[in-house]
Design a protein that fits this description.
This is Trans-2-enoyl CoA reductase. This protein is an alpha+beta fold. The protein is built from two helices and two strands; from the N terminus they run E-H-E-H. The mean pLDDT is 92.
């Protein structure tokens, strides 16, 4: 099993500071030939902000 994860998600378009929320992602089954990589941080691409804003 993978460890539980945290993600920032959005359900509607608008200002990122009001439409995004942090949510927990449940663990998933992993196969023997898969690895789990822990990410400490990830950049936000300006194109992602444009998509959220609509």
């Amino acid at each position: 099993m993978s460890p539980p994860s945290t993600a920032v998600v959005y359900d509607q378009h608008g200002p990122p500071d009001t439409v995004t929320r942090v949510t927990k992602i449940p663990p998933v089954e992993m196969n023997e030939n898969e690895v789990c990589v822990k990410m400490l941080a990830a950049p936000i691409n300006p194109a992602d902000i444009n998509r959220i804003e609509g």
